[in-house]
Amino acid sequence: MNAFQTSLILAFAFLAVFAEAALDAPRHWLGAQVDLLPGLMIFTALNAGLPTIALLAIFGGLWFDSLSANPLGISILPLLAIGWPVFLRRDLILRDLPFAQLVLGAAASAAMPLLTILMLLSGSQEPLIGWGSLWQLIVMTAGGAAATPLVFALMNWFNHALGYQVRTENSFRLDREIQRSRKKQ
Amino acid sequence: MFKQKNYFALGAVIFVAVLILSLPASATTRLKFAISSWFLPLFGLADTAQRLPADLADTVLPRRELLQQIAKLRNENQQLKEQQIQTLAITRENDQLRTSLNWQKQAPWKLKLANVVTRDPANWWRTVQIDVGSRDGIRENLPVLTASGLIGRVSAVKLANSQVVLIGDPNCRVSALVENSARDTGVLLASGPLDTSLVQLTYLASSANLKSGQNVITSGLGGIFPKGIPIGQIVDSRSVEFGLYTEARVKLNANLGSLEQVWVLFP
């Protein structure tokens, strides 16, 4: 984990939020816009430290709310609520398996709108919800699930292409070599 | 030590979230504008990218087709000029009649063209951002329409762009009038999150005589939308709350799903 990866995650979040606002095709064809931030939060929670999770929750939430009619800051806590439990249990998660990424992405993409709407309703806001919201939730869950392995692949590719290469190490160390020569007495 | 660091980060996020949510409305609005201005370079980029295919198509359009289009537009222009002469005569007559009756003169509408740059990324709001702002004279609550009819009102104004809340969003209620003999008046509310072409016209009189296809226009009540802007047509109606009032579904004239250019109206 380094500053480069944190910057990369934040840059991806910025572009993802803009793409959600600018690209209308999913809403036009499926009736709902797919959110990429939950999938990115899963990647961050499995691969980065808590400061990066905190930064993504704050900046990702603020960027999303600034282009939306949401009250500013309402998306911060739902994003954190996704990243925090995954971070706590990340040693038990097979993060490299696409199926695990898919399931986590689906759960996060379903939880994010539910938590946000819950917060909006508790703040006496009137979001546009109805029976059609169930279909939107299904689209968001399925779309988010499908997008999460892609987010993982893309972020890993960027890390390999632009970040520092991981140094391969073997067990051989010169200073710990056993000398097998006869000792002179 | 490791755990302490983690809890510090967690506490910091919760503190920031609670702090921003509890800020006064004016401060939140200013902060929202400041953050959304980060996206301004990308708005320009997206606009250029959207125009690129059309520009490319223009360069390869055959000359014959262009000449045909010019001839068609000349013809259309001639017809519009004739219509304008008639309209001016009617307006003059209307003004004279209003003066003789001591009625207030009707001011002509001023329109400002704007491009839709982004849509709300959240599925539970129906808003769009347009590329005109306070530097273009835009202010809150100005009506926004297309050539087909009303689409909403300006809900927030920034320096270079503004947020428009569309009809069908819970924050955009419009007082509407049905063009029938009784001139029934109701309020347009949100219908559902999926279908953007239908809205609910409610609080109509229980005796309202509604028929499919009747035009719905703005009533002028409420002080935001001037009277007479076309909204849509009645689809069907039903009596609700044991006959207390009538509700109708209205099909909007404007297609909210594919907005590209809109007009901001200065009444």
Write the layout of secondary structure elements.
The complex is a heterodimer of chains A (185) and B (267).
Chain A: H1 3-22, H2 25-30, H3 37-47, H4 50-66, H5 76-88, H6 98-122, H7 132-162
Helix pairs in contact in A: 1-4, 3-4, 3-5, 3-6, 3-7, 4-5, 5-6, 6-7
Chain B: H1 2-21, H2 25-36, H3 40-59, H4 63-100, E1 110-119, E2 127-130, E3 143-145, E4 150-157, E5 162-166, E6 174-178, E7 185-189, E8 198-204, E9 215-218, E10 230-240, E11 245-252, E12 261-266
Antiparallel strand pairs in B: 1-2, 1-12, 2-5, 3-4, 3-12, 4-5, 6-7, 6-9, 7-8, 8-11, 9-10, 10-11
Q: What is the CATH topology of the largest domain in chain B?
A: Thrombin, subunit H
Say what oligomer this is.
heterodimer
Number of domains of chain A: 1
Taking Cα atoms only, what radius of gyration of chain A do you get, to the nearest Å? 21 Å
Low-confidence runs of chain B: none
Strand order of the largest sheet of chain B: 1-2-5-4-3-12
Mean model confidence by pLDDT of chain B? 88
Task: Summarize the structure in words.
The complex is a heterodimer of chains A (185) and B (267). With 185 residues, chain A is an all-alpha fold. Chain A contains 7 helices and no strands. The mean pLDDT of chain A is 89. Chain B folds into 3 domains: 57 residues; 40 residues; 160 residues, Rod shape-determining protein MreC, domain 2 (Thrombin, subunit H, Beta Barrel). With 267 residues, chain B is of the alpha+beta class. Chains A and B meet through α1, α4, α5, α6 and α7 of A and α1, α2 and β1 of B.
